[in-house]
């Protein structure tokens, strides 16, 4: 017996229930990742039903808090509804997060939706080098988990002006920039480690984790072989684009031949990202309340919803 209800693509699409699409084709182009083709059909059939489900969850939580505040006789604002999105590098979780943010912000009962990535809570490269774990960036030990948990806790507590560090994929390091989150209706947290818990951090006695604050969790899934293919394709596109920009940490990869670049991408996948997927990310999949199972071209083929 599976703990999940399974929906084929056409079954899930029927649950949209006439929710209108308020995003244009140009909006979708801005939201999609480098190696993805986010079509209007995909947004309508997969993400509109998901946005509708999340809206119902948020509305139910807001209603419950209204009753509680009436009982207590206070006028406190409802704490933000926190959504966690996890999955492998290159699986498309960032696009999922951006699209859900855009869709959910169109609902009147929760117009203020913030998106934070856990990349900002990686230790700076200087610290990773000092600890000799630069080759394990993205693994559990590479995150300042205490700072991340404190951030989520403060946002959930309704504190104003909660600050999050910002990570640059160009320089491959934490920047001097900061992002301020001010009492959102919904907070979306996207990252490799969103569903990890105490058992995934045996080196850290800290026993409160992001997963403890989530109201709803999503895992973006695909076969590892397919994700590797997407990773290599994305690497090659970066090689002709972002890697050439001034200050790019990976600029030296532009000097490789096509075959050398493909070999390098596959080596990085097998020694770092694929290893992290198998050891630390994939084992958290069934902690999610909803799993988006992708097939070719990043198209979702099946949706699993926890009973």
Overall 3D form:
globular
Average predicted local confidence, pLDDT: 90
Q: Give unreliable regions as ranges.
A: none
Main sheet: strands, sense, barrel: 7 strands, mixed
**What is the CA-CA span between the terminal residues?**
11 Å
Instruction: Provide the gyration radius in Å.
Output: 20 Å
Number of helices: 8
* Proportion of residues in extended strands: 15-25%
Sheet with most strands: strand arrangement: 1-9-8-7-2-6-3
Strand element count? 9
- Summing up helix and strand content along with how strands pair, one would put the structural category as alpha/beta
Topology record:
Blueprint: E1 4-8, H1 9-13, H2 25-31, H3 40-72, E2 81-87, H4 93-104, E3 113-117, H5 125-130, H6 145-156, E4 162-168, E5 173-181, E6 186-190, E7 216-221, H7 224-239, H8 258-281, E8 290-294, E9 300-306
Parallel strand pairs: 2-6, 2-7, 3-6, 7-8
Antiparallel strand pairs: 1-9, 4-5, 8-9
Helix pairs in contact: 3-4, 7-8
């Amino acid at each position: 017996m599976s703990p999940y209800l399974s929906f084929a693509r056409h079954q899930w699409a029927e649950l949209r229930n006439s929710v209108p699409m308020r995003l244009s084709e140009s909006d979708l182009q801005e939201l999609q990742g480098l190696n993805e083709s986010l079509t209007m059909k995909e947004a309508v059939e997969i993400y509109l039903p998901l946005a509708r489900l999340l809206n119902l969850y948020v509305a139910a939580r807001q209603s419950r808090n209204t009753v509680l505040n009436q009982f207590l006789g206070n006028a406190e604002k409802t704490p933000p509804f926190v959504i966690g999105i996890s999955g492998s590098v290159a699986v498309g979780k960032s696009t999922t997060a951006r699209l859900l943010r855009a869709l959910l912000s169109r609902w009147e009962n929760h117009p203020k939706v913030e998106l934070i990535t856990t990349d900002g809570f990686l230790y700076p490269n200087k610290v990773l080098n000092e600890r000799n774990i630069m080759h394990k960036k993205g693994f559990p030990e590479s995150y300042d988990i205490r700072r991340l948990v404190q951030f989520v806790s403060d946002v959930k507590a309704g504190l104003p002006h909660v600050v999050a560090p910002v990570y640059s994929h160009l320089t491959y390091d934490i920047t001097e920039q900061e992002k301020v989150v001010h009492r959102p209706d919904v907070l979306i947290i996207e990252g490799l480690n969103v569903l990890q818990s105490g058992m995934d951090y045996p080196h850290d006695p800290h026993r409160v984790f992001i997963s403890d604050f989530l109201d709803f969790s999503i895992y973006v899934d695909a076969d590892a072989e397919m994700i590797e293919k997407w990773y290599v394709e994305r690497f090659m596109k970066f090689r002709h684009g972002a890697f050439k920009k001034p200050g790019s940490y990976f600029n030296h990869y532009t000097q490789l031949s096509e075959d050398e670049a493909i070999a390098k991408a596959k080596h990085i996948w097998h020694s770092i990202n694929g290893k992290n997927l198998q050891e630390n990310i994939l084992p958290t999949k069934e902690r999610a309340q909803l799993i988006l199972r992708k097939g070719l071209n990043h198209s979702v083929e099946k949706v699993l919803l926890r009973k």
